[in-house]
Amino acid sequence: MTVAFAIEAADGAARRGRLTLAHGSVATPAFMPVGTAATVKALTVEQIRATGAEMVLCNTYHLMLRPGAERIAALGGLHRFMNWGGPILTDSGGFQVMSLAQLRAIDEDAVTFRSHIDGSSHRLTPERCIEIQRLLGVDIAMVLDECTSYPATIEVARESMARSMRWAGRCRRAFADRHGHGLFGIVQGGVHPELRRESAEALRAIGFDGYAIGGLAVGEGQDEMLRVIEATVPHLPAEQPRYLMGVGKPDDIVEAVRRGVDLFDCVLPTRSGRTGQAFTWDGPLNLKNARHADDPRPLDEHADSPASRDYSRAYLHHLVKANEILASVLLTWHNVGFYQALMRELRAAIAGHRLAAFAQAFLSRYRASSPAV
Fold first, then answer.
1. What angle do CA 295, 298, 301 make, to 5 degrees?
2. What is the mean pLDDT of the chain?
3. Quick one: pLDDT at residue 128?
4. Of 11, 164, 224, 328, which is most buried, counting CB atoms within 10 Å of its CB?
């Protein structure tokens, strides 16, 4: 293994740990803000750092199309290109190929698709996926996988998962070990526990630096998602990091941490910030709603972030209604900060062996209000 992961405390299935990578260490459980195209939308890297985020996620699919992996490599790599000195994980692009690309076709060797930007044709093999991530210079690369559609029959899910496992083996063989740089496998198998177990065992036989749970948060609902996590985690190595891809809402994260997950990413805090929604300890707020127009309170007077503490809900409501760019900046900054504060509280609760009490109190308070009031 080329990256170090140390478990510092445990509380039930939950772990507090530290992941050490080429560009720094990350306290876990951790949430990675999504910087798809080498930027966390609406935020500078200084603002991202101020929230406490230690690692960000970028995307292979988007960066290979624009500006191109070779161009980024010639400019000194992704860290220098986006002025981010901390660790970076890149999603391999499999999900984006399936969801965004036009005229895509999958065969045993690769996926062929047309760019959603200009219609140009591309063929992405597992080997090329690894090469792109090497050119970018990221700390954690992901294997290329086929994202199974939802819902899917067990036969379709089995065929898709099996192809992903063969691609995972090709990715591992193409990956050149470098100290501080790791490759994660991705467990697939739809919502079928037996396929998830088979996928996890196949990945363990190949051997990776960490293991992701993919193919969730695609419409299956929280109960089904948690059932799949519970069926998968026991088959993953206890001494290595576990990453739940694309999840999720704050209550999803708390529930997944309780079940032993260490890493998360999701577009929700940034996308919601651009659409007038703020996450708070009392549930999400929709700043478009007229009830906020005369509210002088900040989003969170106890938060470190100026976006959370120094602007009234009335002012934020005004910015959202006026479609001002500053609304996206402040609400995104607040939301990313809220997610980082939640992760700090989770780490502290695990270290203090009080996670059950924290989770119960948080979930009760967070779910008490109507969604996005």
1. 140
2. 96
3. 97
4. 164
pTM over 0.85: yes
48-105 pLDDT, tens digit per residue, is 999 999 999 999 999 999 999 999 999 999 999 999 999 999 999 888 877 877 778 8
Q: What are the distances in angstroms from CA 220 to CA 39, 151, 228?
A: 29, 8, 10
Using the 8-state DSSP alphabet, how is residue 295 labeled? -
DSSP code of 123?
Answer: E
* Residue 18, token pair as written in the block: 């530290």
Amino acid making up residue 347: R
- Please tell me whether residues 65 and 95 are part of one structural domain: yes
Q: Would you give the distance in Å from CA 117 to the centre of its chain?
A: 23
Are residue 236 and residue 178 in the same domain, yes or no? yes
Q: Give the number of C-alpha atoms closer than 13 A to the C-alpha of residue 218, restricted to the C-beta side.
A: 20
Q: What is the DSSP string of 135-159?
A: HHT-SEEE-------SS--HHHHHH
Q: Same domain for 307 and 250?
A: no
Give the catalytic positions in this structure.
Answer: 91, 265
- Tracing tokens 């005004």 back to the chain, one arrives at 318
Whether residue 55 is found in the same domain as residue 96: yes
> Is residue 40 helix, strand or coil?
coil
Q: Which amino acid is at 329?
A: V
Q: Does position 372 have pLDDT exceeding 90, yes or no? A: no
From CA 254, how far away is CA 273, in angstroms rounded?
21
Instruction: Select from 238, 265, 292 the last residue of a domain.
Output: 265
Dist CA 28 CA 243 (whole Å): 10
- The Cα–Cα gap between 185 and 357 comes to 33
